[in-house]
Specification:
Elements: H1 2-17, E1 22-26, H2 32-41, E2 47-50, E3 64-68, E4 72-79, E5 90-96
Antiparallel strand pairs: 1-3, 2-3, 4-5
């Protein structure tokens, strides 16, 4: 599957950099095991979160995620009710530890 190959490539890039990271976007899956596996592949202490963002007219699927290296703390997260696409926007507040 193309998505799995893309997730593996992203994981390799992130792990090579060895720097703090924030990775966010539309991962086009609500498969919890796939997302957990991806988070683990990014390294120890990676946190991730999502909210139901799809579809905007009745959100019931988490397709959009944020992944934070252990260097960050998630302060707050929520969805906006602005309908700018078929996904609701996610807003995250993070701070460097």
């Amino acid at each position: 599957m193309a998505r799995i190959r893309q997730l593996l490539e992203i994981s390799h890039i992130v792990k090579k950099s060895e720097r703090p990271f924030i990775l966010a976007g539309d991962f086009n899956t609500s498969d919890k095991s796939e997302i957990e596996s991806f988070a683990k592949s990014l390294g120890n202490g990676v946190q991730y979160q999502s909210h139901d963002t799809y579809p905007t007219w009745r959100p019931n699927k988490p397709l959009d995620y944020i992944f934070l290296s252990k260097d960050f703390e998630l302060v707050r997260s929520y969805t906006s009710k602005e309908k700018l696409s078929d996904h609701l926007p996610l807003i995250y507040e993070v701070k460097l530890k």
